[in-house]
Amino acid sequence: MSEQSNRRILLIDDTPSIHDDFRKILTPARAGSAQLDEMEAALFGSEIKADRPVFELDSAYGGQEGLGKLVQALRDSRPYAVAFVDMRMPDGWDGAKTIEHLWQEDPKLQVVVCTAYSDYSWDELLDRLQAHDRLLILKKPFDNIEVQQMANTLLTKWEMTERASIQMHHLEQLVDEGTAQFRQASEALQREIDERRQLEGQLVQSEKLASLGQLAAGVAHEINNPIGFISSNLGTLDGYIKQLLEMLDAYAAASRSLETGAAAQLEQLRARLELDFLLEDIPLLIGESKEGIGRVGRIVKDLKDFSRVDTNQEWQWANLQLGIESTLNIVANELKYKADVVKEYQPLPDIECLPSQINQVIMNLIVNAAQAMGPERGTITLRTGQRADTAWVEVADTGSGIAPDTLQKIFDPFFTTKPVGQGTGLGLSLSYGIVKKHGGEISVRSELGAGTTFRVELPLRQNRPAA
Ligand SMILES: Nc1ncnc2c1ncn2[C@@H]1O[C@H](COP(=O)(O)OP(=O)(O)OP(=O)(O)O)[C@@H](O)[C@H]1O
Ligand SMILES: [Mg+2]
User: What residue ranges carry the coiled-coil annotation (predicted)?
Assistant: First the structure.
């Protein structure tokens, strides 16, 4: 803030003699008075009077000229604090019009209207200018001291207003800064809350998987035994039944040589028991049971993989793209009628992994993508790339997409939206477990009706303690 006070006054009057009067009143000969002050100081040792009011007076002889000076002064950053404006100026603008123009350019200007008589009543004038707080009236003929005091008071008022507005501006700035800091802090807080929520979600997810994994391992172990003897018994039963059928055929042939009464009795029995139907149905029933138990066996195997028991596979350096290609060959049939496959591979180094498990992850993702297609043929895009110490694979489809509230459940074991028999809901939870075991991440983004992209990120090398 400038400490230099503003002493600048503009006088607008068409009568030259008024300018002389004002000059005498407001700027008494400085040189003479300064000399007097200095002599007084030398003689009596008193200090030089510093507070003698000094004004800087500019003259204009018409409204337009006055406005020109005011505009120039603003441009030079040396604004006037006060203008004395004559009300009656026959050529050009009158006082009221001049004041309107001055305030349009500089609303802070303090104005004194000088007049002996006016074309307006004072009420009219005040109403027209709408600025009762910036306007004083000085009636001619005026008193010298009145002019001086008006000039003094208005300069002080201008300065106080200026200072208040600078302070107000400063305060507003402080408030703005405070608000910005507050906003930043609350944004940071929100980010932290979101991160925490996500971490908690992940933690819950991995704990849930871990405990389900143990449960699954236990259940798998318990089921494995009965599955074993049921399927072996079914095999044996199949053999026995075949033998029995052979025997029945032999009996049927022998019965033809029996006496008529006994043969008729047997025939009756055969009809009542619907033996022909039984003979047809028994092998079918056994076949279905074998298939059923085979399916249970496969689920149990998935469960075991999911719970990471039975893992005696070797960590190897393997090429992800080769893995994807061999997986594509295996699922080719599944894809053939559903989607075109687009490959966007970037070169990748070999990564340290359990290749068969990684292939299983990729297979689950590709099969899911194919199953997400509607009646129309879609596209599955496979992408690979490297970022810092990780390799990534993306499987993107143009399928049904996943609703936001479903999205949180898809990694849960047994969560499926597919019809019974088509999905067990283990594919993704299994994949999640495998990726975690590799120290990697699996993520998904999806838009309902547009498609889904799964992304798997795997570290290039494993930080395992030496076996
Ligand atoms: N690409 C995808 N597009 C749309 N939905 C998907 C996609 N991948 C997974 N889902 C949803 O996630 C659910 C769980 O998938 P997950 O692979 O775990 O089980 P599944 O495919 O239903 O059965 P499974 O893989 O055991 O045969 C699916 O039922 C489906 O609702
Ligand atoms: Mg699946």
Answer: 182-209
**Which fold, 8-142?**
Rossmann fold (3.40.50)
CATH superfamily of 316-459: Histidine kinase-like ATPase, C-terminal domain (3.30.565.10)
Instruction: Output the CA 426–ligand 2 centroid distance in Å.
Output: 7
Closest CA to 368 of 414, 425, 438: 425
Mutate which of 306, 338, 361, 368 for ligand 1? The one with the most ligand atoms within 8 Å of its CB, which is 368
Ranges of beta strands (E only) in 87-156 are: 110-115, 135-139
Residue 452, phi then psi, degrees to nearest 5: -135, 145
Q: Which two tokens stand for residue 451?
A: 């498609």
Name the closest-CA residue to atom 7, ligand 1.
Answer: 368
Ligand lying closest to the C-alpha of residue 298:
1
Instruction: Label residue 366 exposed, middle or buried (CB < 10 Å: 0-12, 13-18, 19+).
Output: buried
pLDDT (tens digit per residue) in 109-165: 999 998 876 667 778 888 888 877 888 888 888 888 999 999 999 999 999 999 999
Cβ contacts of 18 within 8 Å, gap of 6 or more? 11, 86, 114
Query: How much distance in Å is there from the Cα of 450 to the middle of ligand 1?
Result: 16
The domains of the chain are located at 8-142, 202-306, 316-459
What is the CB neighbour count within 10 angstroms for residue 96? 18
Q: Which of 367, 428, 429, 456 best tests ligand 1's pocket when mutated (most atoms within 8 Å of CB)?
A: 428
